[in-house]
Amino acid sequence: MADFRLEAETRTEFGKGSARRTRRAGRVPAVLYGHGQDVVHLSLPAREFAAALRNGGSNVLLTVVLEGKEQLALTKAVQRDPLTRVHEHVDLLVVRRGEKTTVDVPIVIVGQPAPDSIPNHQLNTVSIEADATKLPESIEVDVTGRQAGQGITAGDLVLPTGSTLITDPEALVIGFLGAPTAEALEAELAEAEAEAGIEREESDEAAEGAGEGDVVPEPLDQGSGESMDAAENSTDD
Question: Which of 16, 18, 176, 228 is the most buried (most CB within 10 A)?
Answer without folding.
Answer: 176
